[in-house]
Write a structure and sequence with these properties.
Elements: E1 7-14, H1 19-22, E2 25-28, E3 43-52, H2 61-64, E4 66-70, H3 77-82, H4 84-102, E5 108-118, E6 141-142, H5 146-156, H6 161-164, E7 169-177, E8 187-190, E9 200-206, E10 211-217, E11 225-227, E12 235-243, E13 253-255, E14 267-276
Parallel strand pairs: 2-9, 3-11
Antiparallel strand pairs: 1-3, 4-12, 5-14, 6-10, 7-12, 7-14, 8-11, 8-13, 9-10
Amino acid sequence: MSKPKDFTTTIQYISRDPLYQVEKAYSADFVPDNGETPLNHIFDLQPIHVKDIVSPQEFELDVHGFCLLKAKTMLSAEDALTNQSSVEMDYINEIEALLYLKFPEYKRIEAMNFIVRNRDARYPSTEEAVVTHEQPAGIPHADFSREGGLMQLDYAFPGQLEYLKDKDYDLLNVWRPLTGPNDDWPLAVCDWRSVQEDDIILNDDLHRTRLGENSLLHPNPAHKWYYLSSQMPEDVFIFRNTDSTGKRARCFHAAVYNPESRSEPRRSAEVRVVAIR
């Protein structure tokens, strides 16, 4: 067994600033017409130690908020990056089949979206730039809060909210690199057991045509962060963003700078699904 490749880096938490006692955190993917800033985030850059996952089988979705599976798919990096729309449904079908096999408790699984990321060599940068794909998300977050999950379901499945809102469901993300071995800006996941309730701050996720809500993290030295070194495309992270009860383990996650990486810029694919029990 090879030696674990832990590393120390920094991560941009949301500060425990008094501002958030009087104003809700928000971020927008556009510049508001009224000239307001597109976000009110006050960051608190903190060091973290990221542990290499040596025994993936030790991590469970319902305990840690994430798990790892071995699963090959037919999706190639070239097709994902240059011909995404033509391969999307086949890939989604593969992911849904994988989840049905691994989690028989789910009676129905429906994909909400499919995202391909290709890190630009300039990332991270504060300068505006035109890029071909979405970039890594470097702020610790869960993609949806409990209320934000309902907003996402209403957006992804128009007219179905009355049916879905009374169901018992999880909103999951299935994430993997498209090329490997990858150590460049790897996905780091936080053990749910190390997160306290007052570490979590709700954030309005603003788009021009709709409103969402996700969850961000305040710093806490108790947080336990993990990643998988030399991750290959068949190494698949599955993690929970939220659920209908608001009581299950979920996963705060972020792309983190790995000072030891010698990999090419990270390319990754993820599918977000609603999984109904």
